[in-house]
Amino acid sequence: MTLLVVIICIVSLILLITWGKVNAFLAFLLVSIFTGLGLGIPLANINQSVQKGIGDTLGSLVIVVVLGAMLGKLVAESGAAQRIANSMMSAFGEKYIHWALMITGLVVGIPLFYNVGFVLMIPLIFSVAYTYKLPSVYIGVPMLSALSVTHGFLPPHPSPAALVTQFKADMGWTLVYGLIVSIPAIIVAGPIFAKTLKNMVSKPLEGFVVQNIPSEKLPGITNSLLSSLFPVFMLMLTTLLLVFVPKDGVLSGMLKFVGEPNIVMLLAVLLATVTLGLNQGRSMASIMGVYADAVKDVAMILLIVSGAGILKQVLLDSGVSAEIASVLQGWTLHPLLLGWLIAAIIRVCLGSATVAGLTTAGIISPLMKQIPVDPNLMVLAIGAGSLMFSHVNDAGFWLFKEYFNLSIKQTIRSWSIMESLVSVVGIIGVMIIDLIIRS
Predict the structure, then answer these.
(1) What pLDDT is attached to residue 330?
(2) Are 287 and 278 in contact (CB under 8 A)?
(3) Within 319-416, where are the H helices?
(4) Could you tell me which of 71, 52, 204, 70 has the C-alpha nearest to residue 128?
(5) Which of 23, 24, 46 shows the shortest CA–CA distance to 315?
(6) Phi, psi for residue 305 in degrees, rounded to 5
(7) What is the average per-residue pLDDT within 7-32?
(8) Measured CA distances, 421 to 243, 340, 424 (Å)
(9) What is residue 249's predicted lDDT score, i.e. its pLDDT?
(10) What is the model's pLDDT at position 6?
């Protein structure tokens, strides 16, 4: 009976968001309360579960997400992202232009949230298509596949960062493994798959082609790369150095402190404030205005993440999590494949990668305590599943369709298959790393 309540809960969540058009945070809150009642949690304790779910989820996540949004917004506003893109184009030339766009998407996508990166890179894609007279979909897919991968696999993006917190994984190792998995996923779903799209006719709306910042006003390439990728460098460096220093020494303690995601993101924002802000002639007031706008951009994302935390807490407090774990333990499917499959199913039904990842975490987390599995790889497995087959219930699907002026059939042929390839190649990469670690 309890498992039936959970199934009804998940189905209700999907229907509220997709059919009822209810805001995802409100849907999570409503479903969580009714699920708690259905699972027999006393009325007096349901509110405690709600508050604990929000607090535990956002407590260690809100700083990373907010600071990440601030950094990404300044990278975009300062022209650093444009400088990186222009430099990549110059380095690769017309023959390998889709590879240049793929690498640009990966570099720019790490600090930028997906929607920001999408809107920022679209003018570049169209500009290249018009300049070199190349099919826009063929040019755009490699870059957008890279943006998608960073959104699903790499901290400090909201879903992977939240999963790291929920599974008590290590953000540094998740990032290292994530980058290893990302490269083949982007190559297969990007330049290789894009070759099949050369003949797809698309006439992007000219109104979407915006004016770029004049070259002389852009920050330098070294400054742009260092400021944008500072969190990646710091997380990877501290993670690797900790392998070689004594675990209980002073240096180890310092590295652990500096390598904490909150501290890394704070240092990155402070650095960017100087390098991409003050040194570029911006006033402190204008920089703070950029940061304030960035927080508005991610406010709803944080609420959705907290809503998923509420549902997870209700499942834990009701005791049904233990029952779910015992049922899942009876499955012969590998835990990483199970996490990927559940996330993929919810993603296809629901549309949102973030909601799919976080909902899966609440279902799968009890299993983590009973079956030995690397939590960093579970983050990536669920992240891969959360990117599976984007279609008409996903905002990203419609962004791609409308910007590239495609039919629904063309969008499924290009965008939906690209997302599916990212998902499948991603889980294959995760399983290979798991095999290597275990051997």
Answers:
(1) 65
(2) yes
(3) 320-329, 335-350, 353-368, 375-385, 395-404, 408-411
(4) 204
(5) 46
(6) -60, -40
(7) 86
(8) 34, 14, 5
(9) 82
(10) 79
Tokens of 44: 């007096």
SS (H, E, C) 122-174: HHHHHHHHHHHCCCHHHHHHHHHHHHHHHHHHCCCCHHHHHHHHHCCCCHHHH
The conformational region for residue 79 under phi > 0 = left, psi -120 to 50 = alpha, else beta, is left
Rounded Cα distance, 156 and 260, in Å: 12
Could you tell me if 379 and 176 are in contact, meaning their C-beta atoms sit under 8 angstroms apart? Answer: no
Structure tokens at 367: 């299993």
CA distance 105 to 117: 8
Do residues 396 and 390 make contact, with C-beta atoms less than 8 angstroms apart? yes
Number of separate domains in the chain: 1
Which residue range is the domain that position 119 belongs to? Answer: 1-438
Give 414 or 21, the one with higher predicted confidence: 414
Q: Which residues contact 433 (CB under 8 A, 6 or more apart)?
A: 177, 180, 181, 377
Token digits of residue 217: 């006003």
CA distance 187 to 229: 21
Residue 387 pLDDT level (bands cut at 50, 70, 90): very high
Q: What is the pLDDT of residues 285-324, one digit of tens each?
A: 999 999 998 888 778 878 887 887 888 788 778 877 666 6
Alpha-helical regions (H) of 39-96: 43-59, 62-78, 80-92
